[in-house]
Amino acid sequence: MNDTRRAILEAIGDGPVSGPDLAEDLDISRAAVWKQIDALREDGFEIEGGSNGYTLTDVTTYNGPAVEYGLEAPFSIEYHDAITSTNDRARELATDGASDVGVLADEQTGSRGRLKREWTAPSGGVWLSTVLRPEVAPARAPLYTLAAAVATARAAREAGVDARIKWPNDVVVPVDDEGGYRKLAGILTEMEGETDRIAWLVVGIGVNANVDADALPPEATSIRAEAGDVDRRVFVQRLLEEFDRLRTDLEGVVPAWRELALTLGQRVRVERASDELVGEAVDVTDSGALVVETDDGRETVSAGDCEHL
Ligand code: BTN
Question: ipTM of the predicted structure?
Answer without folding.
Answer: 0.99
